[in-house]
Amino acid sequence: MIENDLFLRACRRQPVDRLPVWYMRQAGRYQPEYRRIKERYSLVGICEQPELCAQVTMLPVQQLGVDAAILFSDIMIPVGAMGVPFDIEADRGPVIHRPVRTQDDVRRLAEVDPESDLPHVLETIRLLRDQLTIPLIGFAGGPFTLASYMIEGAPSREHLLTKGMMYRDPQTWRQLMDRLASMIVAYMRAQVHAGASAIQIFDSWVGCLSPEDFRDYVLPTMQTIFAGLKDLRVPLIYFGVTTADLLPMWRETGADVIGIDWRTPVHTARARVGNDVALQGNLDPAVLLGPWPEVERRARVIVDAGIQQPGFIFNLGHGVLKMVEVDQLQRLTRFVHEYSEQKLAERREGKSS
Ligand code: CP3
Question: What are the φ and ψ backbone dihedral angles of 98, each rounded to 5 degrees?
Fold first, then answer.
């Protein structure tokens, strides 16, 4: 049962006494416990065992004192269920040996029935629902980012094969986007029915598109996805990196919360998305490799900007790096809680006097 609903309140832009905090990749290799589990099991191996997967999801919850848990999984897990096998290579990322490049490849993609194709994911969520007292965030990859892995066959900097398909064969691109949209909607609906209290779409690489291309090639798909989830009444979060110039358009996606990276200051992002959505972010994960006073200084700037409007969730601008010390993240969580509580109280007193 959820006892601490701070995260959900902030997603809905309701008043909070302190800012909620969670971290992308909060379960991962920076944790000695995770590294020990990884000596025996692969990432996919962990995901296939609901008890172990729930245990990994829980690792950072007590340890860091965060206000939300995120399902331990990977954006590639449902891609396997679409009939596209992948490997996750250490320090590289997902690799697909038979990439999706032609219209026939797209036609061959299997439709995903989450209950029968991904039962272990849903079982993990059911176990977590019984254990957690904070909200659980379910997630999927965004359509552009999933398409990029499927088309390139490996992590890519420029996404040229992906853009090549978009420009050269817009019909096949659209068919791929439609397939991904229906998978994402079905998968996210199943996660919410199993017990997820919010959904985040990780479209990490969509920031490589110009605003015009985002509008033409991705925005309609994002609108379809969020429209297909709206009736669930859970917060819908859309996250990407290097999205500064896309942000004005992101309010048209139907997202309730927009996740930003550190390249866009919070006040700039706020001006671009308006006041009808919540914001989430955005400490540079690399700052955690520096000394504590520098971490604190940067966190203070984010909190000061974040509390100017209702609806702010403190996070990093991308995932926790594997070189980070657990202790830095513990300290950061505590600092953001205490500092934001003090600043929000000051604001309330300022307003009432
Ligand atoms: O946030 C969490 O704690 C939940 C777990 C989670 C993982 N991947 C586990 C994981 C989440 C939300 C993801 C999402 C994901 N996966 C994204 C979107 C977010 C982002 O980081 O941009 C992307 C692009 C992927 C694809 C992927 N999987 C990459 C690029 C890598 C990194 C390769 C590396 O070695 O750094 C992975 C592997 C992966 N997924 C790891 C974890 C903890 C690290 C390797 C491992 O533990 O085996």
Answer: -120, 85
